[in-house]
Amino acid sequence: TVDLLSGKIVVAAGEKAFIFDTETNKLLHTLEGHTDDINCCKFSKDGRRVVTASMDHTAKIWDTLTGRLLLTLSGHTDWVRACDFSPDGTRVVTAS
User: Could you tell me if 49 and 90 are in contact, meaning their C-beta atoms sit under 8 angstroms apart?
Assistant: First the structure.
């Protein structure tokens, strides 16, 4: 899965997601923490966060400036297949 926002791209491959600068092709951050494949990854509208959804039954929110994990959303009883931020960036929606 891939998402693009103003000069940055986030790409998920297996259990990791990667944030690249699209102008320099430089890897900015590797987002590690899921224990199974990632199904979806999306930037917040302001580009400050990324949400990832995984087959490990969690979604995770990451800081795009530091690559640091901010929050793990657990409690899903099946794979988390999709995720996104609300238009104002204050909420996350997941589909399991």
Answer: no
Q: Please classify residue 9 by burial: count the beta carbons closer than 10 Å to its beta carbon, then call 0-12 exposed, 13-18 middle and 19+ buried.
A: middle
Please name the residues in contact with 65: beta carbons below 8 A apart, sequence gap of 6 or more.
Answer: 48
0.90 cut: is pTM over it? yes
Instruction: Give the number of other Cβ atoms within 10 Å of residue 21's Cβ.
Output: 12
Tokens (6 digits) for 60? 């995770």
The answer to whether the Cα torsion of 80, 19, 86, 92 is positive or negative is positive
Chain Cα centroid distance, residue 38: 9
In tens, the pLDDT along 14-46 reads 999 999 998 899 999 999 999 999 999 999 999
